[in-house]
């Protein structure tokens, strides 16, 4: 039994060249993909770092604002206590003014 069919060597060479070209293209594509994935990973890590820093700064800002608000409230309470004397003085001044008015009216 002999086979009348034979394999064309040029066709095999052509297939081999096409396979090599595809291999090179695939290798190039995978290298680019690796680079892009590394870049995406770096950007993702940086994004998480920025998020973490933002949360940390936000918490610090809230704490600072809260502390300053408490200090302001304490200062207002202190002023209120200190100004209670001013109200008493104002009342005394009004009484003196009324007495002066009454004295002035009686002199006329």
Automatic annotation (TrEMBL):
GO CC annotation, single: BORC complex
What's one Pfam family the UniProt record gives for this protein?
BORCS6
Lineage: superkingdom: Eukaryota
Q: Which GO terms describe its biological process?
A: lysosome localization
Residue ranges occupied by any BLOC-1-related complex subunit 6 C-terminal helix domain in the UniProt entry: 6-104
Q: Name it.
A: 6347_t:CDS:1
- Record organism: Ambispora gerdemannii
């Amino acid at each position: 039994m002999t086979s009348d069919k034979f394999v064309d060597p040029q066709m095999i060479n052509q297939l081999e060249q096409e396979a090599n070209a595809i291999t090179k293209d695939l290798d190039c594509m995978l290298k680019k993909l690796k680079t892009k994935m590394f870049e995406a990973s770096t950007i993702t890590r940086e994004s998480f770092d920025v998020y973490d820093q933002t949360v940390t700064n936000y918490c610090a800002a809230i704490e600072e604002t809260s502390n300053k608000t408490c200090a302001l409230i304490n200062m207002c309470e202190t002023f209120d206590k200190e100004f209670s004397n001013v109200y008493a003085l104002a009342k005394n001044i009004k009484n003196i003014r009324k007495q002066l008015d009454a004295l002035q009216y009686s002199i006329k």
